[in-house]
Design goal:
single chain; globular; Transcription Elongation Factor S-II, Chain A; disordered N terminus; 3 domains; Glucose Oxidase, domain 1; Aminopeptidase
């Protein structure tokens, strides 16, 4: 039911609540003073129970073999994770899906044809220093969801292969039709490089990592340093549908073909998959191409780090053959989800997750996060076995087939859509969550306070500072990012409206190469193996703080603060191409009400918790209403670039695939430099903010 509250009523409650003597007595954090004392004891137990050396053993076990989604090796990883969680006392469930995908690159070749015949290398070198590099199950570089084809043609260089780069080629009179494009990694999601190449009529695409971006131009290369050597190849998916998950089951879970419930699937021809062949190569192979190009010199900013003058075209004398035969079929994947059932509120869920499939060994990406979550499972299990169960349920999820296109988590979100809408308190993502020693996080507004407060309670292992102080450095407060694309929080946050965060520690990476292995990790990433337990403590504290609070400790006041800044930024961007644009009047009015109402709620909760005045029935109602707040931004119409993305608050940038779009309805119009729908968006955003503000005030009234 949608309630309307008059301004007069609002002011009455505002004055009454703010003058309450408990309003200034404590900073509300979801606990009564007594329960908070008990919570601090539990958090100390968690910190003490974290097995730092155990993290190393988990990571070593998880990365024994390359384990691509859909392969027997990945099933063994799933079995190991399930065993660890079951031994920790968790109830473990598996969620199988049949996905249309490939588990290997099939047959592929890339050769110079003229002026000389020269096959180009497609796989990393075997290195004496790194015994993992000789694993016989390692394969060539490949891109999932490449088209198949056998093309011989001349070559065009497209810089990073962004939308702007292809537009620049057109502006400079370079025709790419029928040509093979070579583009470097960076600037956007690799799938968009393929999408734009195909849109402009290219016959094939080669993607390489330039040494200016990771290679000898940056520093020492592997195995002497942390940068790509001349054989390192970045693998990765090219999937660019306007929805997440299995390409044949948009909006619906890709349930097993042999299961009881049948799911309608698209024909592969209807899914908009790429049709041109695409291959990733190393810069050692790319240099053989660049050395022989003789067209026009590239514009400013397009020169890379190879020792040649970069040119736009290879000329008629330089021809390449690009051949890919990549079969796709239905492949069984499986999410592994463990649960510690809540003792008082079992139907309110705190979910922590990381995918477990990898392009090869996956030591940093993703299994540093996987190993951390296994260690956390064990630490929580010790507490539960000692009689300290969380009040809310804590779920730890290991997603499959993320590397193919955030598939496993998206299918689970689609399967559990209604349940998550009612039960999910938060989703915490740790993809590659212990990939170095540099801490950072991105979060939705209501979790930002939790992210920072829990970082203050954890010691950073390499200095005498807390994790928080190490994070903020010389700044007064640390920078918390906004959630973008590229990992498993997408479905939770952008499709269903579950407050989410992504965080951990980063550092050197041999991203998606065969060298992202245990040797690289223990040599360069964290030789002392102290960060795994550290991030586990931080993640565990956040989960416990949310699990045991009488009132879910969302930072509700942050909505108005962040939204105000985001709309101010959007207005400035719009005025760059529309000088007469005056702003979003309806939104400004709604934001003013939201800001006042969050203050009212904050005061009401502070007073109620300070007085210990809330019954279990009242608490249940309060928390149900709090969980519903983020759903104010879920708009069934969704975005114009893809209705699967339903959050008005945040979305993946549909042109880069990685970046965060805050207020995505507006960002899309800005990218088009269009003012045509701004009035519509003023109404849609104002309605969402009014809904949120009204929910907040009704919640405050129910407490008072």
């Amino acid at each position: 039911m949608k309630h309307k509250v008059s301004l007069t009523s609002f002011l009455y409650y505002c004055v009454a609540l703010l003058t309450g003597h408990f309003a200034a007595a404590q900073e509300w954090n979801g606990y009564t003073p007594t329960s908070f004392q008990e919570q601090e004891k539990m958090e100390t137990l968690l910190m003490q129970g974290m097995d730092f050396p155990g993290y190393r053993e988990h990571l070593k076990k998880l990365t024994e073999r390359p384990h691509i989604a859909g392969t027997p090796a990945n099933e063994k990883v799933a079995d190991y994770m399930a065993k660890v969680m079951e031994e920790a006392g968790m109830m473990v469930d598996r969620y199988p899906y049949d996905i249309y995908m490939s588990t290997n690159g099939g047959t592929s070749n890339i050769d110079l044809v003229t002026p000389i015949r020269l096959p180009l290398n497609q796989q990393e070198y075997i290195m004496e220093e790194d015994p993992f590099s000789a694993d016989p199950t390692l394969g060539k570089g490949w891109n999932a969801y490449s088209g198949s084809g056998d093309v011989t043609s001349t070559v065009v260089y497209a810089n990073y292969g962004t939308k702007e780069d292809f537009e620049k080629l057109t502006e400079m009179g370079i025709d790419v039709k029928g040509k093979i494009i070579i583009a470097r990694y960076g600037g956007n999601f690799r799938g968009y490089k393929a999408k734009f190449a195909e849109q402009y009529g290219a016959a094939g695409l080669i993607i390489y990592t330039d040494p200016a971006d990771s290679g000898y131009m940056k520093g020492l290369v592997y195995p002497d340093g942390v940068y790509y050597d001349e054989s390192a190849i970045q693998r990765g998916s090219l999937l660019t549908t306007d929805y997440e998950g299995d390409p044949l089951t948009p909006f619906e879970p890709s349930l097993p073909l042999d299961g009881k419930k049948k799911v309608k699937r698209l024909d592969p021809s209807e899914a908009g998959l790429h049709t041109i062949p695409v291959l990733p190569i190393a810069y050692g192979a790319a240099k053989e191409i660049f050395a022989r190009m003789n067209g026009k010199v590239v514009p400013s900013g397009w020169q890379g780090g190879l020792p040649y003058t970069y040119r736009l075209e290879g000329g008629e004398e330089l021809t390449l053959r690009l051949q890919v035969d990549q079969k796709k079929d239905f492949t069984r994947i499986s999410n592994v989800v463990g649960t510690f059932k809540g003792s008082e509120y079992p139907d309110e869920w705190i979910i922590l997750g990381c995918h477990y499939d990898a392009w090869a060994f996956g030591a940093t990406d993703p299994n540093s996060g996987t190993a951390m979550l296994l260690s956390l499972s064990e630490a929580l299990g010790k507490m539960v076995k000692a009689g300290h169960s969380p009040k809310r349920s804590i779920l730890i999820a290991h997603w499959d087939a993320e590397e193919h296109g955030v598939i496993g988590s998206s299918e689970w979100v689609e399967q559990m859509r209604d349940v998550l809408g009612a039960k999910a308190v938060a989703y915490l993502n740790f993809d590659g969550g212990v990939s170095g020693k540099n801490f950072g996080a991105a979060s939705s507004p209501t979790l930002k306070g939790l992210v920072t407060e829990m970082a203050k309670k954890v010691d950073y292992p390499y200095t005498d500072k807390t994790l928080y102080d190490e994070w903020r450095g010389e700044k007064e407060v640390p920078s918390i990012g906004n959630l973008g694309g590229g990992s498993d929080h997408i479905g939770f946050y952008m499709h269903v409206g579950v407050p989410s965060l992504s965080g951990g520690s980063g550092g050197p990476t041999l991203y998606h190469t065969n060298y992202d292995d245990f040797h690289f990790y223990e040599t360069y990433v964290d030789p002392e193996f102290k960060m795994g337990g550290t991030i586990g403590q931080w993640a565990g504290l956040m989960a416990l703080r949310m699990a045991n609070a009488e009132v879910i400790p969302y930072d509700v006041k942050r909505y108005a603060v962040d939204l105000k800044g985001h709309f101010e930024s959007a207005v400035k961007k719009i005025q760059q191409f529309d000088k007469e644009f005056a702003g979003f009047g309806k939104v400004e009015t709604a934001l003013a009400v939201l800001e006042r109402n969050t203050t009212v709620l904050d005061a009401a909760l502070t007073r109620a918790l300070g007085e210990k005045a809330l019954s279990k029935k009242e608490l249940k109602s309060i928390n149900e209403q709090l969980i519903a707040l983020e759903k104010s931004f879920i708009d069934e119409k969704g975005m114009y670039y893809g209705s699967w993305y339903k959050s008005l608050y945040a979305s993946t940038d549909p042109f880069s695939g990685y970046a965060s779009w805050i207020l995505p309805g507006l960002e899309y119009e800005i990218s088009l430099e269009s003012s045509n729908r701004l009035e519509e968006w003023d109404q849609r955003y104002a309605a969402a903010i009014e809904s949120l503000a009204n929910k907040i005030l009704m919640l405050a009234k129910s407490i008072s």
